[in-house]
Request: fold
Amino acid sequence: MEGYLFSLNLWYISAIVPISLEKYLLLFSSALEFKQKKNIMINLIIDAANDKIFFKIMAENKSYTSEYINNRENFDKLVILIFKFLNENKLNVNDIDNIFVNQGPGKFSGIRASLATVKGLSFTNKINVYGFNSNHIHEKNYAKIIELFNNGSLTKNLIKPQY
Reply:
């Protein structure tokens, strides 16, 4: 059995490790797995300043999008729509590293609802928030927002709505 101590057969390793230490090994291995997964930066972009409420997740070379009609009914359930969008893409709010929100100019109600929702998510889940302007977006090219973030052009937790 001692020759298999360093093998990848985990059932052999747990048979050798005393039961009192087994829970610590499981915690350690799950922490390593979490550390490896967390190296991917996951960004959520929310734009409710135009005719549609737009959500986009950007992580490495992957992106997921969803659009909803920009109306009062959807403002009232904006948080539900965000969680539904995340669940459809097999993500949790805790997986999000940064939220980028359109702070205008645009539709007053959309901007107000999205800013309030994002501030709540940021406060409760310790997520970084960055505001961008409508003029940063051309033809729904939201990759430009990540480029501005990487260049340091967006300020963390500074939201200045422009209605």
